[in-house]
Amino acid sequence: MPPNRAPERGILAVRGARLRWGERTYIMAIVNVTPDSFSGDGRLDIAAAVAHGLAQHAAGADLLDVGGESTRPGHAPVAPDVEMARALPVIRALRERLPDVPVSIDTYKPEVARAAAQAGADIVNSVWGASDELLDAAAEFAMPVVATHNQTGHDYPDGIVDGVREFLRDCAQRALARGIARERVLLDPGIGFGKTADQNLTLLHRLTEFTEMGFPTLLGISRKSTIGRLTGRAAGDRVYGSVAAAALAVQAGVDVVRVHDVAAARDGVAVADAIVRDWRPPNWTA
Fold it and tell me: H helices of 59-141, where?
């Protein structure tokens, strides 16, 4: 186990799952219920979105992340009622079919988080940090929270790493002040949000400076434009680059990777976990 991933980081107990931070890197699968996802995998049809979530779980996802508003660069924000009309039926159906699987709502809007919790969501995953109002909603429903760095523009007067760390530290401290336990506050440096490709690569190169902050960490790098620039491939054809980034995230001690291509990511992360963390699958025999 890497020295920066101590067992005292704790366990996230959600539904029937117990995610022991530091034991291995967990897979969060993306379930987009949108017409304008950057990666072209959005499904507005409720039945199709539910089927996709079930398939993602069958492929090895530990958590399912349901979103009703695209967060791609240049996206058009939607009203909370539209977002809820898209995401909530999918959450209800997944909760019925997968009663023990953690489900998160990908939103930064407090009213959507509250409605999602009532529909069966367990976690709130916010792409715009963690506003006080969102943290109030999370605390009200005892939801773990993912706080993602984001900003308008690419200017970082104190440097990209220090700027992102300070933003996330502030989110985490405000979450703790509301009684949300440390092991239930996940920090995401926000690859692709308010950052240039070079800034993204700097963050990826220095991921340990985030895993050493004392909170569980999440990384969303799957199919991002930086991978496209490096490989020359379109969004739907970036699986190999995405898996490489996920494997290196394991090396840095990241706890959760948010991915589109679950089966490929699961294989890459399993091998990396075995090498880096001395992890073995449950059916392993010496």
Answer: 80-97, 110-119, 132-140
Tell me the domains of the chain and their CATH numbers: 8-277 (3.20.20.20)
**Smallest Cα–Cα separation from 165: which of 145, 143, 144, 147?**
147
How many residues are present in the chain? 286
Choosing from 92, 224, 238, 277, the catalytic residue is 224
pLDDT for 281 beyond 80:
yes
Residue 43 has pLDDT above 80, yes or no: no
pTM of the model: 0.94
For 54-80, letters b (16+ CB in 10 Å) and e give bebbeebbbbbbbbbbbbbeeeeebeb
> Is 109 designated active site?
no
Across 167-269, where does the E strand assignment appear?
A: 185-188, 218-220, 256-259
**258 catalytic per annotation:** yes
Distance CA 267, CA 244 (A): 11
Catalytic residue among 43, 109, 258, 266: 258
Q: Please give the full DSSP string across 177-200, using - where no structure is assigned.
A: HTT--GGGEEEE--TTSS--HHHH
8 pLDDT above the threshold of 80: no
Give residue 35's pLDDT: 80
Tell me the per-residue pLDDT of 181-240, one tens digit each, with 9 for 90 and over.
999 999 999 999 999 999 999 999 999 999 999 999 999 999 999 999 999 999 999 999
Element (H, E) at 210: helix 208-211
Cα separations (Å) of 154 from 151, 158, 170, 204?
8, 12, 19, 16
